[in-house]
Fold:
Amino acid sequence: MRSSGDGTAVGGPYPLHGGGTDHSPSRPMAVQGSGDAASGHERIGYRGPTACAAAGITYRQLDYWARTGLVEPSVRAAGGSGTQRLYSFRDVVVLKIVKRFLDTGVSLQNIRTTVQHLRERGFQDLERMTLMSDGATVYECTSPGEVHELLQGGQGVFGIAVGVVWRDVEAALSQLHGERIDTGETLIGHNPADELARRRNKAV
Structure:
């Protein structure tokens, strides 16, 4: 996928939509090759503060991106007083990708186009994807050969290996609280510091 400076997607050497595949926005957000891990993520939601901690953003950013439709919570939107947004694992991955693009100077308009097309794609093969940008244009690469070709052309100057972001978010969320989508049960994350304290107490 290549997004132009006016925020619209245009054809390019790395089109987001592959031939012969249905990429309807209603397509389930399944990640190929993730197996049980992906199905496990689908059952857990994360509140705003947890999503912020895992993505490395401020709550003000989270709130602004949700209100402007850049990254909205796909599990539960804020629906009045006392209702808290609930983000999916993939939402948090996208939040972290958006943060990295903003930090490197990519325009919010181009980021918005990228996020929209990732959603329309259904996030297939997300873990194997590399997003690259020259600051004005965002490209999607799904193989080392495509990354090499883009670099040879002198266009790509910054890349995000989405699989790395995926694993970073997974590690961060494993130490934070989640919520079961079906029952609302709070899931306590594993904190290595707590485990170390328990072991010390046993040794005393």
User: Anything to note?
Assistant: The helical segments are 35-42, 48-55, 59-67, 89-103, 108-121, 144-152, 162-173, 192-203. The longest strand covers residues 44-47. Residues 2-38, 192-198 have pLDDT under 50 and may be disordered.
